[in-house]
Structure formats: C-alpha cells, structure tokens
Specification:
Shape: globular
Strand content: 25-35%
Strand order of the largest sheet: 2-3-1-4
Number of helices: 2
Length: about 80
C-alpha cells in the first residue's frame, strides 16, 4: 500500500512566540499580519503564540517580519 505524501508546500506546523499581545485586537492584528505575509496557512492565533504551516519556502520568516512590523516581538519556537 502506498503511503500518501504531503503536498509540496505543506510543512509541519510551526509555533511562533509573540510578545506584546494582550487582547483580542492584538490577536486580530497578528492574524492580519500573517495572512498578509503570504505563503502561510494560519492554523491558530492566540495571545502569546501563533501556529502556522508554511506553503512556500521562506514564508515563516516573512510572517515573523510581518508580526514585528505590526509592533510585536516574534520568534520561531519550533
């Protein structure tokens, strides 16, 4: 039996740690930043972290930069 493979774009989920978030408006701002960065599937955004899946190479780095541009600290946890 053949094992299904991941789509070419699909990475394992990545957790981005986010500093400076305190409310639902922050969550919305981070979600908008990640969506605008392109190449990411946004799985979950909550105060202090976001889970994303990369669709194109380099998208996580663009997402981290977009979060930082929105005024928050961001770094990849996993």
């Amino acid at each position: 039996m053949e094992t299904p493979t991941k789509a070419v774009w699909e990475s394992d989920p990545v957790v981005i740690r986010i500093e400076g978030m305190s409310c639902g408006h922050c969550v919305a701002a981070v979600r908008d930043a990640l969506t605008g960065a392109g190449g990411l599937e946004v799985l979950e955004v909550r105060v202090a972290e976001a889970r994303v899946r990369e669709r194109t190479q380099g998208a996580v780095a663009r997402g981290v930069a977009a979060i930082q541009d929105a005024g928050f600290g961001a770094s990849v946890m996993s």
